[in-house]
Amino acid sequence: MDTNLLNNYVLKAIDAYPYDLEETVENLNYALSYESHNAYALYLMGRLQAEQFGDYEKAKSYFAEALANKMDFIKVYPMYILVLIWNHDFDEAQKLIDFAHNVKAVGKGELLVLQAQLFECQEAYKKALKTFKKAKLFVYNNSFITFVDSEINRVKDKIKPKKKKTSKKKKTKKEKSKKKKK
């Protein structure tokens, strides 16, 4: 198989995604017909299934196959973990997060953000906050830090007890009773 031709199809699919889905699918199908175990084509097919079609089970199988063929393909880990969280496969997501921490060059800050999101989905808000704060220590990008800060604020809002608003009628009754006492 001509590697340049395979790479051309994969590159065309990368370039077309997500703006031209028809071209993306066509090029991915060509790439996978040449080499059915191409990790990047499998990864992109998994993203397509998850993000565009919402078929998380198919996406999971594509991501798993991509990792089976290339364990050090670091782009797969965050997306695969996110799909597991979306699909409420929390135990699988935790196992993959734990494994991904041992893979060289995987962004530790990004993994910690995913861990915090997993805690949040499990309604462990204090653990989520602690993990988001830890994630800030492992990033070198101001926009990512801003993103993490916004996530922290969002989780804090979930924790805050909601204050009861008194209606105007109740306030007026209270004011009337105060006036009568005077």
From TrEMBL:
InterPro entries: TPR-like_helical_dom_sf. Residues 158-182 are annotated as: Disordered. SUPFAM superfamilies: TPR-like (SSF48452). Residues 159-182 have a biased composition (Basic residues). This is Tetratricopeptide repeat protein.
